[in-house]
């Protein structure tokens, strides 16, 4: 079968042309087959833009069966044979629980904020299904969004806008006499019907901190990773706090790192915002590219980042408050210093694969190298997965997704610009299977499995 080679020119095509190409039934389309009891595993690669590992050259995806994903004799070449996901930069991808559908909201550029979904037919064969809708009028052209765990029904996108508030006691000629009061953070939330491609709800709400924290210059500067509680009546949104010097209103990066916080709202009305504060962890709870919080066994477990004591897994109980009796330090569990959770995903049994870096990570071509660990939420244990090879250029900061199939978790391992493999972790038996080969190209990297 003739292979279709996708060049950088292809990445510049409009979303319309991409849609036409993905639905073309020509012999150039590379397909795969799977058994009825199998699941599609979609692999994503981020092509280099200007610098190795920046991922700004676009995103390509390719799907194989679980059997082929586990087969080390199978070769996967997404950068040469993959489907180009509409997005100016690295696409923000989500998958249905059974792997049969890929959801995408384009990030930045002319198509930024456009929601599309695709039926997975194997190989580069992704067929757009349903209508396209733009959420850019609500949350901008570079939205941060997540698929909620409600049976693939709802997506949630969020943003925050900030404004420094001053009292007007300066002279018109010299506003430097004005006194800083606080920084208002307005959080916007969109609920998106993934099935029917329509907006379900939109709210923009002011989310204040305590009077003391705001007087000291703290405010929410980034929000991300919304998660539903077990009851389905509350939405948790992770946040990053920033600080200004109240005397100068200039950014203050030397201030104390506050305890980790989460915004809690009624769902689906999005009313009654409340900020809850951890008594265990410090730093941010918004994550970066990957889902940062998951419901398990009636509670929500959340990673934090930038904690001076290393990342923790925090627990929010059924009462929608942090459970400070649950203390899970990754520094202590892994015997390292400065653990930083980059991405993670639990299976249904409460055992997870977690991507992380730490103070001892080597500096590679794109940043600090990453590692994977097997985590048990109930036992509060974490063990580095030694069966996966590591080197300085194994970069996981932009890692987005893990594919879950029962108790198995599928992940990608390949340093920037170098070949690698799929690895399958059986979280119950703790066995690791080296799977299909991943063929890379210069400066590019793999960002996960779905």
Helix content: under 10%
Number of helices: 7
Euclidean distance between termini CA atoms: 26 Å
Largest sheet: 5 strands, mixed
| Inertia-based shape | globular
Spatial sequence of strands, sheet with the most strands: 3-28-27-26-25
The number of distinct β-strands equals 29
Strand content: 35-45%
Structural class: mainly beta
Protein name: DUF4374 domain-containing protein
Describe what you observe in this structure.
The strands form seven sheets. The protein has a five-stranded mixed β-sheet with strand order 3-28-27-26-25, with no helix packed on it. The two termini are 26 Å apart. Mean pLDDT is 91; it is low at 1-27. Strand 25 and strand 26 form a beta hairpin. The radius of gyration is 22 Å and the shape is globular. It has seven helices and 29 strands. By secondary structure, the protein is mainly β. This is DUF4374 domain-containing protein. It comes from Wenyingzhuangia gilva.
Keywords:
disordered N terminus, single chain, mainly beta, 450 residues, 29 strands, DUF4374 domain-containing protein, 5-stranded antiparallel β-sheet, 7 helices
Brief summary of the model shown:
Helices cover 8% and strands 43% of the residues. It is mostly beta strands. Strand 13 and strand 14 form a beta hairpin.
Which helices and strands, and how do they pair?
Layout: H1 8-11, H2 15-23, E1 40-46, E2 59-65, H3 66-69, E3 75-76, H4 78-81, E4 83-85, E5 92-95, E6 101-105, E7 114-120, E8 126-134, H5 136-139, E9 144-147, E10 154-167, E11 179-193, E12 198-206, H6 211-215, E13 218-228, E14 234-245, E15 250-251, E16 259-266, E17 274-282, E18 293-296, E19 299-303, E20 313-316, H7 330-334, E21 340-346, E22 351-357, E23 371-376, E24 381-384, E25 403-405, E26 408-413, E27 420-426, E28 431-438, E29 445-449
Parallel strand pairs: 3-28
Antiparallel strand pairs: 1-2, 1-29, 2-4, 5-6, 6-7, 7-8, 9-10, 10-11, 11-12, 13-14, 14-15, 14-16, 16-17, 18-19, 19-20, 21-22, 22-23, 23-24, 25-26, 26-27, 27-28
């Amino acid at each position: 079968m003739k292979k279709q080679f996708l060049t950088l020119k292809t990445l510049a095509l409009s979303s319309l042309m991409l849609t036409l190409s993905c639905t073309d039934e020509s012999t150039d389309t590379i397909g795969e087959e799977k058994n009825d009891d199998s699941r599609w595993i979609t692999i994503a690669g981020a092509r280099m833009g200007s610098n190795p590992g920046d991922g700004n050259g676009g995103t390509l995806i390719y799907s194989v069966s679980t059997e082929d994903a586990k087969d080390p004799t199978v070769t996967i070449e997404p950068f040469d044979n993959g489907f180009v996901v509409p997005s100016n930069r690295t696409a923000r991808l989500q998958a249905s629980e059974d792997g049969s559908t890929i959801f995408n909201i384009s990030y930045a550029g002319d198509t930024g904020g456009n929601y599309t979904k695709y039926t997975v037919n194997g190989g580069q064969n992704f067929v757009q299904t349903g209508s396209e809708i733009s959420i850019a009028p609500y949350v901008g052209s570079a939205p941060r969004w997540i698929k909620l765990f409600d049976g693939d029904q709802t997506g949630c996108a969020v943003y925050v806008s900030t404004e420094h508030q001053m009292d007007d006691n300066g002279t018109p000629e010299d506003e430097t006499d004005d006194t800083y009061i606080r920084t208002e953070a307005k959080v916007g939330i969109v609920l998106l019907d993934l099935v029917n491609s329509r907006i379900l709800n939109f709210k923009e709400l002011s989310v204040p901190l305590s009077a003391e924290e705001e007087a000291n210059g703290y405010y929410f500067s980034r929000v991300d990773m919304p998660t539903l509680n077990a009851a389905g009546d509350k939405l948790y949104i992770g946040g990053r706090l920033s600080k200004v010097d109240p005397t100068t209103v200039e950014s203050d990066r030397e201030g104390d790192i506050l305890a980790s916080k989460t915004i809690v709202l009624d769902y689906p009305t999005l009313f009654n915002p409340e900020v809850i504060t951890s008594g265990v962890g410090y730093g941010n709870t918004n994550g970066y590219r990957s889902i940062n919080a998951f419901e398990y066994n009636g509670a929500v477990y959340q990673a934090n980042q930038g904690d001076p004591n290393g990342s923790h897994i925090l627990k929010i109980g059924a009462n929608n408050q942090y459970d400070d009796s649950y203390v899970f330090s990754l520094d202590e569990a892994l015997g390292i210093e400065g653990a930083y959770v980059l991405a993670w995903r639990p299976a249904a049994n409460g055992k997870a694969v977690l991507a992380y870096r730490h103070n001892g990570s080597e500096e590679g071509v794109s940043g600090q190298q990453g590692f994977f660990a097997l985590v048990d939420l109930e036992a509060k244990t974490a063990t580095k997965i030694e069966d996966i090879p590591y080197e300085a250029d194994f970069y996981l900061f932009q890692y987005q997704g893990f594919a879950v199939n029962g108790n198995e978790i599928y992940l990608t391992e390949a340093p920037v610009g170098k070949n690698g493999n799929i690895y399958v972790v059986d979280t119950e038996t703790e066995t690791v299977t080296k799977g299909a080969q991943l063929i890379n190209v210069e400066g590019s990297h793999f960002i996960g499995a779905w």
